[in-house]
Amino acid sequence: xxxxxxxxxxxxxxxxxxxxxxxxxxxxxxxxxxxxxxxxxxxxxxxxxxxxxxxxxxxxxxxxxxxxxxxxxxxxxxxxxxxxxxxxxxxxxxxxxxxxxxxxxxxxxxxxxxxxxxxxxxxxxxxxxxxxxxxxxxxxxxxxxxxxxxxxxxxxxxxxxxxxxxxxxxxxxxxxxxxxxxxxxxxxxxxxxxxxxxxxxxxxxxxxxxxxxxxxxxxxxxxxxxxxxxxxxxxxxxxxxxxxxxxxxxxxxxxxxxxxxxxxxxxxxxxxxxxxxxxxxxxxxxxxxxxxxxxxxxxxxxxxxxxxxxxxxxxxxxxxxxxxxxxxxxxxxxxxxxxxxxxxxxxxxxxxxxxxxxxxxxxxxxxxxxxxxxxxxxxxxxxxxxxxxxxxxxxxxxxxxxxxxxxxxxxxxxxxxxxxx
Length: 421
What we know:
mainly beta; Porin
């Protein structure tokens, strides 16, 4: 009689090991920013279909990214693997600079298509405790100007890449049948690469660095009445103190260290309301504490280097609905609006971000009690963006170059979900 629990436990351990090894192999392809700042919201194909409305209140195993208390929905053992194809267009044009005899140019699309994977697993330990594990990349960025771009040759912007790999084990506790609390740990690898940084007499540079930092997650979910779910989730800030290399054009290479790169904490609120036994509505709100990220100083190099961010806080709000067409097939849609943390006075050519509108749709199909699939699509329209020159209200690093960015994103997600008893 003891063999079955032992076999189940060994199977769970094996699948979690597989989850970790798969994520470690696949996730490094992710380096893309499609939330405000250089955050990445594409962590769930299910959530993609409603512009992530109500995800802090549940709906799918991947909702543990927003709120680990949603692990309470797991009956025995579940695995969910998501992938998103992100097709961005960020067209940058430069205005003429009369003093330099510069006629202005079309820099083309500085963004790049990406695959964005995330994976989740969870196992109910007892009738009250559930253990879960999430592996994803909550922050990322890629932008690149051509080698002969005046922005590159002038040391304004070249290639910018930020990559994170976040491992998040968590555990939930059902205190009552209507109240669940949860907490978890974040272990995050952070890697940055910036080229085209002007260093005066030292010429253009390539700046690289990486670090492993730590944080935590926490959450609570309430079900005050039948059909109503309310969730509040928290992902703590993580401060990364990077070590790396500075490669200069004229003075060789140097080992460097960085002040803390202060990544934001995130608070998410979600509400799911059952209207009928086949139709649900969801609303959500997220606050990203981007104002923690101010100026990062690079130390130990040949001369001081300061990377100025000085972001504001970011906000995202969304609403959506979900309808069960049949017991096996459901459709959903949603809209969202994001207030970017990047204002005119700090917007650079490396990340010409602005407010954006999300329009999304998705569907789920359940093959049987053990196997189901999700798909989701979002069109993200970014407001037309002015990039100001230094001296005209823009940051010092933009130099004399003013310009515009016209951006939009197509985001297509798919997930496979397996439940084992």
